[in-house]
Structures are given as C-alpha cells and as structure tokens.
C-alpha cells in the first residue's frame, strides 16, 4: 500500500486507465483486487469507494470501448448517403477509435469469459459487427460492392484486418501514420495499382 | 490411465493431433504431461517413448505449421513471374495452409512465451512475414501495387486479415467456402464493385 503522502487522488476514469493496463497485461481472470491496489498505489478500500469490484471495472472499461464504437453509427456520415460511403466512414472511424482507445478496445477484443459482464460485452460486440454487416450487405445490394464475396465473410475479414492492429500498434511508433487510410485503401480498393 | 485393452497405438503424428488440440484449449503453459496423458488415453511413459516432453511436442506441432508455410515460398508460382503474381500466389496459399493445418497454425499464432522453442517459433514466423514483405515491396517497386500504402503496414494488415481466420473458421461450417478467394479479392482488388 502506498503511504499517504504519495497517494494519488483517483477519479473513476483515472482508476480505469490503470485497471485496463493491468487487465491487458495479466488477463482479467488473472488479475486480483490486490494487483489493482498495488498498480494504482491505493488501498483496496479506496478502490471500493469508486466501484463495487473487479467486474464493475471491466464493465466500465469495455463499456468505454463499446460506447465509442456505437457512437460511430450515429455520426451523420454513417446515417446518410450511399451505403458504400456510409460503410467507408464506419470502417475508417472504427480504425480511428481502435487507435485512440487502444487499451480499451484491446481489452474488449480479448473478452472471452463467462461472467455476466463478459457475456454482455460479447453480445454488444456482435451487435456492432451485425450493424456493419448490414451496411455492407446494403452496399452489395446497391451494386456498390462486389457480389462475389459473401457479405458475412467480407465483414469477418474486414474486422479481422482492423482488429489485428491492436497486436502491433504502439502509439507514436514510427511507420504507423496513416493506419486508418491504409485500412480503407486496402478494404475498398485493394493493394493493386490502377 | 487407460486400460490396456482400449489403449490406442500412437505414432508421433497422431499423438501430435491430440496434443495440439489440448494446447489450443488449455494454452501451452496451462497444459501438463498429465493432461496430455489423459487426453491421449495412454500413460506418460508411453508419451515419453515418442518425445522428450512437452516442449518437444510444441516444437513438432508449430514446426508442422511453419514447414507448410515455408514450403509455399518454394513453389514454382512463388519463385517465377511478376512479383504481384508471386505475392498473390503466396497470399492465397497462406490462407489455404491456414485452413488445411488449422489447429497447428492456430497454435503457432498463439505462441507468446519465453521457452527456447517459443522464441524459435516467433523468429521463424517473423522470417516468413519478412519474406512476404519483401515480395510486397518488390511488387510496389515494379509499379504493380499502389505506392501510397507503406509495405510494412500493408504486410501487417494482410497477415492480420489472414490470421484472423483462425478465430472463426470451423471446418465444414456453412458459408466458409471460397475463404482463400475472398482473401485474395479483398487484398488485391478491394470490395468495391468495378
């Protein structure tokens, strides 16, 4: 436990920032309240002052990622215009949210477990994927996207590409500029020169 | 331990097939020789008759995936012709090897640890990625691929898309036909209709 003189004043947000790092490093299952207390430098009872426990911290952390992703679907560019343009906007913004909320989205993508919170997160993630798949299907129907790639498969490959960014992206690393641009280029027009 | 009357006669290959399933389910670190003995239905000493231990089983299993991947680079279509065609062949075959050697490639992609075998696997995987990145760079230089996506980034997104297949592909599942075709279409020409 940290001594009082160096104790940090936490808000729920700053506590979450510490928590998400520990969850990503040790795994949610492998993290104890003791680990969180040590990483934050405050007592467990100080943490319980903010949240009911570990599962609430998980819900808040993945909730932050999910809220940022769902907010994309409410942006004007995602709601009006030809389906292909709306999809392109959603793909670009999904990559951008992944980069700006990297630790939170990383945690979301690693959720696998059986607690109610993990099930809830998996379900909301599937909802988001379905919303994007519907947009993709609308673009195929409109003749804007090729019809020879099955929409469900295309959506999976698209998210596979976007989500893989969490495996290697480090903020400020060299050569990672234009990641969202690259995703959009590759997804919509491919790598071939024209 | 299984009783003698039901004991299965194992070869290294059939023992590996059982092992890779257990490693993928419980994680390499989380698997004991006892777990392997139980899953195979033979005694630990019978396993030691085939291999020196758990780490050798890992080496053989990820080695199988790596050998299949590196063999692609020696195929005639990967060695002659315009770089873009060679790259397209390698991308298609990488997806096909992933599907045909699914449990072995899945294990390879999950290797993270610090044993000598895991370090060796990570290094060989990086070598393979570098070989593909070189081919991609050659195709950009030849003007066959767009120059506005940095080759290293393009390679990462490409492998991100291909490797993500292990997360959802189940052999024989409906709607997974043409996975390798879809990867090639998306990677080289994108989803946009022309």
UniProtKB/TrEMBL annotation, chains A, B:
PANTHER family for the chain: HTH-TYPE TRANSCRIPTIONAL REGULATOR BETI, HTH-TYPE TRANSCRIPTIONAL REGULATOR RUTR
Ranges of the DNA-binding region feature: 32-51
Residue ranges occupied by any HTH tetR-type domain in the UniProt entry: 9-69
Record's keyword annotation contains Protein biosynthesis: no
Annotated keywords: DNA-binding, Transcription, Transcription regulation
An example Gene Ontology molecular-function term: DNA-binding transcription factor activity
Protein name (record): TetR/AcrR family transcriptional regulator
């Amino acid at each position: 436990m940290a001594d009082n003189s160096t104790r940090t004043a936490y808000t729920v947000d700053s506590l979450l920032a510490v928590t998400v790092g520990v969850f990503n490093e040790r795994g949610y299952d492998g993290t104890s309240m003791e680990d969180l207390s040590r990483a934050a430098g405050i007592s467990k009872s100080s943490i319980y002052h903010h949240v009911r426990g570990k599962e609430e911290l998980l819900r808040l952390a993945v909730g932050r990622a999910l809220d940022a992703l769902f907010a994309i679907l409410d942006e004007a560019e995602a709601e009006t215009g030809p389906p292909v343009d709306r999809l392109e906007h959603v793909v670009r913004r999904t990559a951008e949210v992944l980069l700006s909320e990297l630790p939170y989205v990383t945690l979301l993508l690693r959720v696998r477990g059986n607690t109610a919170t993990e099930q809830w997160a998996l379900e909301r993630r599937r909802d988001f994927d379905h919303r994007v798949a519907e947009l993709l299907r609308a673009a195929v129907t409109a003749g804007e996207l090729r019809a020879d790639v099955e929409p469900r498969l295309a959506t999976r490959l698209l998210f596979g590409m976007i989500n893989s960014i969490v495996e290697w992206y480090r903020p400020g690393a060299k050569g990672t500029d234009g990641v969202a641009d690259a995703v959009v280029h590759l997804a919509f027009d491919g790598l071939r020169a024209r």
